[in-house]
Write a structure and sequence with these properties.
about 375 residues; alpha/beta; Aspartate Aminotransferase, domain 2; Aspartate Aminotransferase, domain 1; seven-stranded mixed beta sheet; two-stranded antiparallel ribbon; 15 helices; binds pyridoxal-5'-phosphate; transmembrane helix; pyridoxal phosphate; pyridoxal phosphate binding; transmembrane; DegT/StrS_aminotransferase
C-alpha cells in the first residue's frame, strides 16, 4: 500500500536511535533547552525574528488568536475572513474565542483565496486568517498589500506549506504572524508540535504569556521587569501571577529534541517533495479529465499530499476507485468547504456559499507526496494518473 505517512520521522532509524540515547541521558523532560534551541534555529531558518514552540498546529492557532485578543489587535465580535477550504482547527479558535468567521472561497486554479475574493469582503472584515493550502498560495503579496492598505490584521496558517516560496520569500512570512504544524506526516515531524512565528516584539511577548498559564516566567529579563513593575508584583508573587488569558500549550523536551534533529533535513525534505510535486503536476497537465492548477506565480511548491481535481463527479469516482484498487491511500482535500461541516453548521447560521470549495470537496482527492516515495511507487502513481 502507498500510504500517506510512510514513517514517523525523516531518516527514521537513525532518529529513533538518537532519541533513545537522548531519553536515557536527559534529566529534564518538560520545556527547557532543547525547545529553546529549536525555536532559535527554526526562526533563523524561516527568516523570522521570533518563533514560539507549542504542542501542536492547532494550539498554535488558538494561542495566536488569544494573544491578538489580549493585545487588543482583535476584539470579540470582530469579523475575520478565513479560507473556506481549510482544516477544522484553523477556524475553530475564531469561533471559540468570540470572533465571527467569514468564509472566503478559493480560486479553483490555486486552491487558495485570491486578492479579488478578499476585495469583495474587505469592508466586512477586521482580520484575515488565511490557510496556505497544501504548499500553495494565491497572489499573497497582493493580499498583504490589500490588508496593509485597509488596516486589516493578516495572519497565515502555514501548517501545510513549510518551505514553499513566492518571489524568493517563504510562505509564512507574509502575515503579521504565521503558524506551523509538526504532526507526523507534515513536512517536519516532532510527533506532535507546532510553531508560531512573527517579527513583532510585542506580539512575541504576549505569545510567551499566552502559551503557558498567563505568567511571565518565559519572558526575557527586561520584559519581565517591565510587566512586574506595571502590575506592582514582587519576585515572590511573580511566580504565581497571571497577567492575561492563556492556555497550557507547552511542548516537551522530547519534541524539542526531535525538532532540532529533523531541522537538519529541512532542505532535503522540502526539495524532494517539490520535485515530486513538479513531476505529478506535469502528468496531471496531460490528462483533460483533471482541472489544471495554475501556480506559475510560485517559485517552489512543497506539499505533503498531492491534490487532484476532476471535472465532474463521475470522473472522480473512476479515479478514486482506481487508486483504492491499486492500494494507494487517498483522502478528501482537507476538510472541503468548512461551511458544510457539522460543527460549523451547528454554530454559524450565515453561510457565504463557497461554490469552488464545494466543487473541490465533491470532485477532488489527494494522495501521498512524502520524501520516502520510491521509484516504483512514483511509477505506480503516474500510471494511475493516465486517462
Ligand atoms: C491548515 C491546518 N491548520 C492546522 C492544523 C492542525 O495541526 P495539528 O494537527 O498539528 O494540530 C492542520 C493539520 O493538519 C492543518 O492542515
Amino acid at each position: 500500500m502507498i500510504k500517506l505517512i510512510k514513517s514517523s520521522f525523516y531518516n527514521e532509524k537513525d532518529t529513533k536511535k538518537k532519541l533513545a540515547k537522548f531519553i536515557l541521558k536527559a534529566k529534564i523532560f518538560s520545556m527547557k533547552k532543547e525547545c529553546a534551541n529549536f525555536e532559535k534555529k527554526f526562526a533563523k531558518k524561516q527568516s523570522r525574528r521570533y518563533a514560539v514552540f507549542v504542542s501542536s498546529g492547532s494550539t498554535a492557532n488558538l494561542v495566536l488568536i488569544q494573544a491578538l485578543l489580549n493585545l487588543g489587535k482583535l476584539k470579540k465580535g470582530d469579523r475575520i475572513g478565513f479560507s473556506a477550504l481549510t482544516w477544522s482547527t484553523n477556524v475553530m479558535p475564531l469561533m471559540q474565542l468570540g470572533l465571527i468567521p467569514i468564509a472566503l472561497d478559493c480560486n479553483l486554479k490555486t486552491l487558495n483565496v485570491s486578492p479579488s475574493e478578499i476585495e469583495k469582503k474587505i469592508s466586512k472584515i477586521k482580520g484575515l486568517f488565511l490557510t496556505n493550502v497544501l504548499g500553495m498560495a494565491d497572489e499573497i503579496e497582493k493580499i498583504k498589500e490589500i490588508c496593509q492598505r485597509n488596516k486589516i490584521i493578516f495572519i497565515e496558517d502555514n501548517c501545510e506549506s513549510l518551505g514553499s516560496r513566492i518571489s524568493g520569500k517563504l510562505l509564512g512570512n507574509f502575515g503579521l504572524a504565521s503558524t506551523f504544524s509538526f504532526f507526523v506526516g507534515h513536512h517536519l515531524s516532532t510527533i506532535e508540535g507546532g510553531m508560531i512565528c512573527t517579527d513583532d516584539e510585542k506580539l512575541y511577548q504576549m505569545l510567551l504569556i499566552t502559551r503557558i498559564h498567563g505568567w511571565d516566567r518565559n519572558l526575557g529579563l527586561i520584559a519581565q521587569k517591565e510587566i512586574r513593575t506595571t502590575h506592582k508584583v514582587d519576585d515572590f508573587y511573580a511566580k504565581y501571577t497571571f497577567y492575561d488569558l492563556a492556555f497550557n500549550a507547552r511542548p516537551t523536551e522530547v519534541n524539542g529534541f526531535l525538532g532540532n534533529n529533523q531541522l537538519q533535513y529541512w532542505d532535503e525534505m522540502v526539495s524532494i517533495r517539490a520535485k515530486h510535486f513538479k513531476l505529478f503536476q506535469s502528468i496531471v497537465g496531460q490528462n483533460d479529465d483533471f482541472v489544471p492548477l495554475d501556480l506559475s506565480h510560485m517559485d517552489l511548491i512543497s506539499n505533503f499530499a498531492m491534490p487532484i481535481i476532476c471535472k465532474n463527479k463521475k470522473t472522480v469516482e473512476k479515479y478514486k476507485k482506481r487508486f483504492i484498487n491499486h492500494g494507494v491511500e487517498i483522502r478528501p482535500i482537507i476538510a472541503g468547504n468548512i461551511e458544510m461541516q457539522p460543527f460549523y453548521k451547528k454554530y454559524i447560521n450565515k453561510k457565504t456559499y463557497c461554490l469552488n470549495s464545494n466543487f473541490i470537496h465533491q470532485n477532488g482527492f489527494y494522495f501521498a507526496n512524502n520524501p520516502e516515495l520510491n521509484k516504483k511507487e512514483i511509477n505506480t502513481i503516474i500510471g494511475l494518473l493516465a486517462k
